[in-house]
Amino acid sequence: MNNPLYDTMFAPHAGKDTPFLHLPEGGVITHDAFVRRAAQLAYALRALGLHAGDRVAVQVEKCPDMLALYAACAQMGAIFLPLNTAYTAAELEYFVSDSGAALLVGDPAREAELRGLADAFASLNAEGGSLSDLADGQAEAFSTVERHEDDLAAFLYTSGTTGRSKGAMLSQKNLISNAATLTELWQFTRDDVLLHGLPIFHTHGLFVATNVMLMAGGSMVFMPRLDVDALIDWMPRATSMMGVPTFYTRLLEDARFNRDVAANMRLFISGSAPLLADTHVAFEERTGHRILERYGMTETNMNTSNPYEGERRAGTVGLPLPDVELRIADERGVELPRGETGVVEVRGPNVFLGYWKMSQKTEAEMRPDGWFITGDLGVQDVAGYVTIVGRGKDLIISGGYNIYPKELELVLDAAEGVLESAVIGVPHSDLGEVPLAVLVPQAGAQIDLDGIKTQVDDALARFKQPRAYRIVDALPRNTMGKVQKVALRAEFSG
Known about the structure:
By secondary structure, the chain is of the alpha/beta class. Among the domains are: 4-184, ANL, N-terminal domain (Rossmann fold); 395-492, GMP Synthetase, Chain A, domain 3 (2-Layer Sandwich), CATH 3.30.300. The chain is 30% helix and 25% strand.
């Protein structure tokens, strides 16, 4: 292929008048119109002096032109670097500087504070901007730049909750292989209509949801953000949805959401953060659908998935993908027996090329034989199903004993009156650290701490039990719904 990513994902849609993006406010962008717009944006990038291999940093609210910019970068060989729209100018300065981005694309309203962060700046949003204006006058067919499957296609920066954010380098092969595997595994076709309310600065919304639909040739209801009204309105005309746990809890809170609304749907997928067991049960009781959970990360895209056909086990992230090897290993990389807890390691065509300008970090997390050390703690049962029990950095070592927060959280989450919990380690003068439980009550409920302590005492060894409890209104989360234990430790470790 001349350019594997563009030729696989985008080029096949040229000339097709089939729907690609359904806009909630009305209107449809066809596959062909999308490809033509990407060509115009590729010319605009070229006019700004960009070449193959240049990094394009993009902090733009979700809109069709932002998605087309991803396609434009693929077509002209630039490296796409999407950035969280919540980042401040000070945070953006690090990403732009570290990546060496030749261009920063940002919101027109922030041009004054962002213009000086990169050698070049262009503005873009749903209403337009200087990049949109420049693209409007360009031709609608662009000569695709030759690239190889091992060439870089994108940077995604890790969240940076522990030290500096790391730029994960993703190749064309990484993106293509994962999209092809998921499309087949989840049985997506050109007839599918996906409810897309995820952000596209994150791997979930961009390299999973969007790439799968591009690969399948289907269409997406392209919502700027999570909108329960829009989800309920569009669901009878859709076939599938990808979301984070918040999507599902918000739907369940709405009395309009019922079995009839979901009757045309064939698949609900959740990821980026674990679903509570209660959510699984309530959703199936309400709709008859069992949510499919999967597991991935910035550096690898998706690694595992519960099966499309077969048993979807709540509390697990399913089985390794067909082209992904997975093992539970000790600190030396020695595979542990099934049922033992250790570090999840993966190997396959989905695994990234390393961290940008951080060779030591790459070497520390990538074994010479290609196994990537995820940092997640997990266990795999005899049937192959994987359960994530926490992050390595979340492991609590108390008096020499290892405590896995997830084990304790499962007991706490099942307690009467508890909506959800988070367990963290806090300093202790004698034991080094001890577990502290942070609890969120169910709406209108009172938490009986004495009763919970009795349940915990019955379920777990003494050394695993919390030494203190805190009740809060909500747990701190990032934009993808993951609980931010770093923030909890900062608040409660004093």
